[in-house]
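Hey team,

Filing this mostly as a record. A colleague (T.K.) asked me to run one chain through the structure pipeline before their review meeting, and I want the input and output archived in the tracker in case anyone asks later how it was produced. No errors, nothing strange. Just documentation.

Input sequence:
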Amino acid sequence: MAHTKQLAFLTPADLLARGLALVPLDTPPEDVPEDATSCISGQPLAAGYRAWDVITKSTADPLGQFRGNPDGWISENEAICYRNNNPRKGMPTSRQCLVFEDGTYYYPLISRESAAKQGRPCWRDLVREVWPERQGQRMLMLLTTDPKKRLWPLAEVGPLGAHTPVYLYAPGTASTVWCDWARMLLAMDLIEQVYALGFSKRAIAISLWQQYKASTEVGMVATRELEEGIAAIRQRPEFALALLIAQKGDAK
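Output structure:
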């Protein structure tokens, strides 16, 4: 946008505004005090809006979203993201998404079956599709099981690769996960192999031995080998992400 200072790195709002082609606000941004920074991203501003100007009755946890300073300033794209998050427009900035710095925007679903019905990508397939072709490109990834949550103010932009930030909001997790993309894909390969054998995601997360029927059908020796493999990656930051999006059938 024209009035924001050229930043050394992009913010989540920059990528969302570009990827969704969001409509600018009717009123232009104001001049801000010298050395003003965004109370969302912390980035320097040449112009912007007061955070209070975009807060509505439906804004959840304004103190948290504006880093304890809802009377501070936000960038033009941050204001645009807030104002465009309208239920009549489908709450576009509250969606789970993957968006790249060139404006390529994906709106995936976790379930492959649901994604196919809606003509949308499935997370499990998408994370494979973008690697390694887009390696090094800056991106924003929001993965959530609650489509009503506005997560982008808490997220970070980073390059696709060995240290990629993914904002994960799911039962037991609400934070940025720093993911090694290649390791995440390998973890998902193993998880899907085990998942296809009849083990539940809960058993994969805790212990395959919890599921007596599946372990009996697979065999004790094979179960022990699979459990050793899964145990080796359970504490990896990529594990929770890979487990959430893993699907049964047609696993690689």
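Quick notes for T.K.: The mean pLDDT is 92. Strands lie at 30-31, 47-50, 73-74, 97-100, 105-106, 138-144, 158-159, 164-170, 173-179.
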